[in-house]
Amino acid sequence: MLSKTSRVVIVHRPGLGEIEIGSEVRNTGAVVKELFDLISVLEISEPIVLVGHSYGGLCVQHFAKSYPKMVAGMVLVDSSSVDLHELDELNLPIIDETDSDEVWLENCKSYSSMKQEQLRILLNPTLSEKQKSYPKEVRQRLLDFQIRPSIYKAMYFEISNWKQDAEIIKSLGTTLNVPLIVLDVEFSIKLGVQGGLPGEELRILEEKWQELITRQGNLSSNSKIVFAKNSSHSIYMDRPDIIIHSISEIINKIKIKSCRIFLHS
Questions:
Q1: Three-state DSSP class for 49?
Q2: 90-94, 100-104, 163-167, 227-231, range with greatest mean pLDDT
Q3: Which range, 83-87, 118-122, 207-211, has the best average confidence (pLDDT)?
Q4: Which comes out higher in pLDDT, residue 194 or 68?
């Protein structure tokens, strides 16, 4: 749908797509440089709409603040926050046992050194009920993605650096004046409790998360926040319609016939 009127470029960071990850530093600054270089190589001069999911959203924020004149609009899809460190300050002893940065770093470092078959046995990758309805080839790709050692190597570098990256992004201090849509998911305390997590900790986490999402709207003086119902963190899979609608809305707001859309996950 979008490609009928605009050129859509999907960007995968090294380790997440077909490009192998080396020993070089991986942070949002590296991604900003790679994106800038890609735009130059493609000789793109048209307005750019940036779309970033999760950590990719943090990269989009860094690029937009570094090169504001190159950006015509943005969609942040359940994006990482520049104030993510505030989650560490919450009193969440049970959740932190399995979901703190330290635990993630330890796991990612271990997984990155394993073979795919070892990861398959250890992680036992699964699909959501909705994903089970996808074509067989897509289902297999989703399962294989979860057991690629390079993914965990990339995640290890990114998690190691993202708090420092966040401070750099905040130091740029630029408030944009371009259309911005911040997409967020509706936090489900019920599902968390069913998974064995304490309801009070989940409530504290939800309140802080919603506060951080609301702050993302401050990135631009022309922003709005939209909640994606019936979606997990993977909005691009559960509710692609709302992402397409948001991008279309941005394009209509900037009133141009065609543009370049960069999708970053």
A1: strand
A2: 163-167
A3: 118-122
A4: 68
* Structure tokens that stand for 227 in this block: 């909640």
Q: Where are the beta strands (DSSP E) in the chain?
A: 7-11, 48-53, 71-77, 176-185, 220-228, 260-264
Asked if 219 and 172 touch (Cβ cutoff 8 Å), the reply is no
Closest CA to 154 of 12, 10, 11: 12
**Residue 265 binned pLDDT confidence (cut-offs 50, 70, 90):** low
What are the tokens at 20? 């192998």
Q: What 8-state DSSP symbol labels residue 265?
A: -
Query: What whole-number distance in Å separates Cα of residue 33 and Cα of residue 221?
Result: 26
> Contact 29/19 with Cβ under 8 angstroms?
no
**What is the spatial distance between Cα 183 and Cα 54, in angstroms, rounded to a whole number?**
11
- 135-172: per-residue pLDDT in tens? 999 999 999 999 999 999 999 999 999 999 999 999 99
Strand partners, 74: 50, 180
* CA-based nearest residue to 179, from 54, 91, 51, 66: 51
Q: CA-CA distance, 91 to 97, in Å (whole number)?
A: 12
Nearest-angstrom CA–CA distance, 119 and 85:
29
Q: Are 179 and 73 in contact (CB under 8 A)?
A: yes
